[in-house]
Amino acid sequence: MRAFEKLEPRDVFYYFEEICMIPHGSGNLQQISDYLVSFAEEHHLAHCRDEYGNVIMVKEASEGYEDHAPVMLQGHMDMVAVKKPDCDIDMKTEGLRIQVDGDRVYAEGTSLGGDDGIAVAYGLALMAGNYKHPKIELVITAEEETGMDGARGIDLSGCQSRKLINLDSEEEGVFLAGCAGGARVNYNALLTPVMQKGTVYRVTVDGLLGGHSGAEIDKERGNAICILGRAMKELEEAGLSIALCNIDGGLADNAIPRQAEAVFLVTGYKGNGEEKDNLEKVVEKLEEGLATEYRKKDPGVRLQTEILDTEERMALSEEDSRRLVNLICMLPYGVQAMSSSMKGLVETSLNPGVISLKQGQLHVGISVRSSVDSAKQGLFDRLSALAQLAGVEMEITGNYPGFAYKEDSPLCSKMSEVYENMYGRRPEVMAIHAGLELGFFAGKIKGLDCISMGPDMKNIHTTEEELSVSSVKRVWKYLLQLLEEM
């Protein structure tokens, strides 16, 4: 028996379960892309797949709708594939262990990929079913979560639609009519470790809530990488001679990191006595301070230290270690500016999401977001100045445009009218401080009218991600009614 067999709408959850059984984390999309092409062929739909892995399929208008304007539906096929430390699933080769708990759908030990598997499931159910609708152009993009490369490269010149419904938002009854632009800033450096003698320690930051670096950035949750930088700086300030061996933290630049650790030598030091007490006292004092600092925002924060051994080990010089600790400690994080035109909307932010130091190879990945191009450029300048001070290389990748809010959107007006007729209340129309592919689509199709919507999801990009069954059903009912009236 399939896990979702008894869930309604049956067709939507059938395809969502199919998607969950196919590994489709970003960078690992061949199987899901092949599945979509096979689906189109099986249902005799006009379709194409491009060099980026994007898939477009077309369903002609149902009877009586031949003279209605076509509509584009859009979502992305990749998910942020993260798992708990004790989870034994290989997310590159295995499907998810999906579970149902009342109104809640989740995956055991991993992220669920409701973002954006549910959009794909809606699209496939619509293309396979017998419903009233105008011509549908279903566009399923690749690599959204790692820079929107599919949307960046897709050729939409053959598409006829001038109305786009994006199904990549996570709150029912909220229509997104604007989004931030952004980019990924990468710091890289090749440093030279040398053999050194000392006591090997590990400092770990964990217990944090994490979350989406756009949607949750205003909650001011702890960033494990930044907290680790503070811990290492305070150890240095306490007089310890630190030589860094390895650093590892975060999983994706667009996820607020929940865990980070550093392995390092304290040189000329035996791991006991006064100096050991000093190290532990510094860590304990900082943990106490963090507990107060984050008592409402991130109450589970933990800072732990562990002595590994006393030995010779390859580690960075004290000078390079100090420079790197200073860099991590100085990394800007969080909200930089709020919007002056829309109350409560974050305008500009950034998130150090990934850090790695292995065998002298350093990498730091930072997500930058802003709805104002000049503010985004200002952050690039600031990060460039920091890179020069730290002696690391900086590269900007995945630069994507925002989508400006339109007060006179005919699509938004129609969607709001249908919603109010069905539910007796107006939807909330807003802009968000997260990246959507709408910016690229609007730039490729002149006059395109875009709105994003979706069912209720929680904790996307984390192992606590969940999807509401009842919300999926309501949004499906609404989508069908909307298409019938367009």
UniProtKB/TrEMBL annotation:
It comes from the Bacteria. Residues 206-296 form the Peptidase M20 dimerisation domain. InterPro entries: Peptidase_M20, Peptidase_M20_dimer, Peptidase_M20C. Pfam families: M20_dimer, Peptidase_M20. CDD domains: M20_pepD. Gene3D superfamilies: Zn peptidases (3.40.630.10). PANTHER family: CYTOSOL NON-SPECIFIC DIPEPTIDASE (PTHR43501). NCBIfam families: aa-his-dipept (TIGR01893). This is Aminoacyl-histidine dipeptidase.
